[in-house]
Amino acid sequence: MIEAVGLTKRYGSKLAVDDLSFTVKPGKVTGFLGPNGAGKSTTMRMMLGLDRPTAGRVLIDGKHYTELKNPLRTLGALVDAKWVHPNRSAHAHLKWMARSNGIPTKRVDEVLDIVGLSEVAHRRAGGFSLGMSQRLGIATALLGDPKILMFDEPVNGLDPEGIHWIRRFMQRLAAEGRTVLVSSHLLSEMAQTAEELVVVGRGKLIAQCSTEEFVDSASNTSVRVRTPQAEQLGEVLASNGLAVARENQQDQHTLLVPDGGTEQVGELAAKHGFVLHELTVQRGSLEEAFMQITGQEVEFSTGQGNEPAAPAAGDVPVAAAEK
Ligand SMILES: Nc1ncnc2c1ncn2[C@@H]1O[C@H](COP(=O)(O)OP(=O)(O)OP(=O)(O)O)[C@@H](O)[C@H]1O
């Protein structure tokens, strides 16, 4: 378990982390989200004892990082995948890390196997692709078989296969009962990976809840109904007190009912003998919810408002702010 209590970090006049309290529990992947400059990296650095809090504390299984006897056995972290001597092989790098942390070197082959790098174990890490480097970073985090894992932007720059692999892998680690905290800018990826969220803005906690609760609390859910008799159905729904909108001007057959349930819309349609070709719940996305909730919390706005960019099919990086 990771527990932050009143965690605060000031750099001169800049309050990077402001009285942050949250808990990351085992057994689930927890996403750590926030616009640029929200304080995620600073918080993660304090978890790893790389930065000292101005006030408050962050505890790793009840202890400060510097009090852990064998830190790698308690908390494994992927912070910078390229942090490897380029002329060292993956195997040599892991062996050196294992030795300097009192971990038996036989664990090196195990973790190389877990992350799928056994075949390239003796190649220079400097020649690794980004995906391979990420895997090596994850192997390093796993060396001490820690109960707690922390990944800072693990899927940045990876291709879809690499992203899929990391997602499945993090979920597996959580299913084994480990605590898994992961920060990412790729919100639709986070929506698929993280069951729980800790959301920060301007160093403060904005939300700690399940991903589903977060999305439901801030984005619009509506019923989408497609029928060749859209106009007549629309009249029936309206006369039953439901707000009805067309999905778009071109499509004459699809209606959106923001406050309705599928049961109510389906039963009214059946009662009046309308043929339905579709009756679905349309949920908002994590992007929509994130932009709505954190829109006011970006450090430097682009000046174009903080409304979401046009809905995209894939991942949308949170680019509403710049450092
Ligand atoms: N060493 C430092 N000295 C001064 N200010 C800093 C330092 N490190 C971070 N900051 C400032 O603290 C704030 C939080 O930065 P941090 O990097 O933790 O945010 P972040 O949420 O990780 O952002 P990003 O998503 O862009 O990486 C920012 O305003 C940043 O400019």
* Structure annotation, total helices: 11
Bound molecules: adenosine-5'-triphosphate
What is the beta-strand fraction? Answer: 15-25%
Give the class-level CATH name of the largest domain: Alpha Beta
Alpha-beta classification: alpha/beta
Enter the CATH topology name of the largest domain: Rossmann fold
| Termini separation | 31 Å
Report on the architecture of this protein:
The chain contains 11 helices and 13 strands. α3 packs across α4 and α8 packs across α11. The chain folds into 2 domains: 2-217, P-loop containing nucleotide triphosphate hydrolases (Rossmann fold), CATH 3.40.50.300; 220-282, Alpha-Beta Plaits (2-Layer Sandwich). With 323 residues, the chain is α/β, with parallel strands linked by helices. It has helices at 40-47, 71-74, 90-100, 106-114, 130-142, 160-175, 187-193, 211-218, 230-239, 262-271, 286-294; strands spanning 2-11, 14-24, 29-33, 55-60, 75-78, 148-152, 179-183, 196-201, 204-210, 222-226, 245-246, 254-257, 278-282. Strands 5-6-7-3-8-9 form a 6-stranded mixed β-sheet, with helices on both faces. The model is unreliable at 300-323 (pLDDT under 50). It is 33% helix and 23% strand. Bound molecules: adenosine-5'-triphosphate. Adenosine-5'-triphosphate (ATP) is lined by residues 11, 14, 16, 34, 36-42, 299, 323. The site of adenosine-5'-triphosphate has 13 residues, from β2 and α1. Pfam families: ABC_tran.
